[in-house]
Design goal:
Largest sheet: 7 strands, mixed
Order of helices and strands: HHEHEEEHEHEEEHEH
Shape: globular
Low-confidence stretches: 1-5, 7-20
Mean pLDDT: 89
Strand content: 15-25%
Length: 280
């Protein structure tokens, strides 16, 4: 009994020990930061449209819209917004066309959430006169989050229009080295809903740039380019990158929500509450 007591004490102390500290935050550069560091060389002399929302910010928290509007030699012609609108704050089923102010002028914001799959595809007339279409949105790493479906449809539209499609890559916030959940097998569901656009597992482990390259195996767009990150490692959570967290949608306030989302959202179609619309 006397020998067992020290072991019991050790077990209790171990259970009360502080959790292992997370690694020091890295100095990851997003695709936007890399583009800035290269003096926007990939966009010089071009008239561009950008698909983004409030998550498209650099390390200093500046919006890509403001950055591109002030970039020398770059003409920002239009902004395209995904589900939840440019400010990522709307729960409306359809988002109308608006304008924002950047670089001392008004720039049109064209919704890519105007009803159904086809309402998420840029229209030919909206791409007319553009040299390049840029995608910069923070995804959450779950198959049924619609932003990468928006990217896939835009890639297809850019290929049809014959213009460049440039993805400014960002981290998968819930890590890129973990893949979980069932693989979607029905190839026809992508024609019905953006929540089933890619035949990948629920937690797919890919970044936006990687998903674009994967989808391009079918699209075969010769003018696809990915501006890669610097310093990102697959085992990183978002809070280890040093990049700011901006809520990508009204019910995704923090990294905890994003990490739970691939599991919890499976129950959204049931009669169980997943806390949608609440702080929890």
């Amino acid at each position: 009994m006397r020998r067992a007591l020290p072991l019991a004490i050790i077990a209790v102390l171990a259970a009360c020990a502080l959790p292992t500290p997370r690694p020091t935050r890295a100095e990851v550069l997003s695709g936007l930061d890399v583009l800035e560091a290269a003096s926007f060389a990939a966009l010089k002399g071009k008239r561009v449209g950008v698909i983004t929302n409030r998550t498209g910010v650099d390390r200093k928290g500046r919006s890509i819209v403001d950055v591109l509007a002030a970039a020398p030699g770059v003409e920002l012609a239009s902004v395209f917004s995904p589900e939840h609108g440019f400010f990522a704050a709307s729960e409306s089923e359809k988002i109308g066309r608006t304008e924002i102010s950047a670089g001392g002028r008004r720039i049109p914001v064209i919704s890519l959430y105007a009803g159904g799959i086809e309402g998420m595809r840029p229209k030919p007339e909206d791409l007319q006169g553009l040299d390049a279409l840029v995608f910069d949105i923070q995804d959450v790493g779950a198959r049924f989050y619609t932003y990468l479906a928006t990217m896939g449809l835009a890639l297809e539209a850019a290929a049809h229009a014959g213009i460049e499609f440039i993805v400014l890559d960002r981290p998968n916030p819930i890590r890129g080295d973990v893949v979980e959940g069932p693989i979607l097998e029905d190839p026809d569901l992508r024609l019905v809903t953006p929540t089933a656009f890619f035949q990948v597992p629920v937690r797919h482990g890919l970044t936006a740039g990687e998903m674009a390259l994967w989808h391009n195996r079918a699209v075969r767009h010769p003018k696809l380019a990915v501006v890669k990150m610097r310093g990102w490692k697959r085992e990183m959570w978002q809070d280890e990158t040093g990049l700011p967290w901006v809520p990508p949608s009204p019910n995704m306030p923090d990294l905890d929500a994003a990490s739970l989302y691939p599991g919890i959202a499976i129950f959204e179609a049931s009669n169980l509450s997943v806390g949608r619309g609440t702080p929890y």
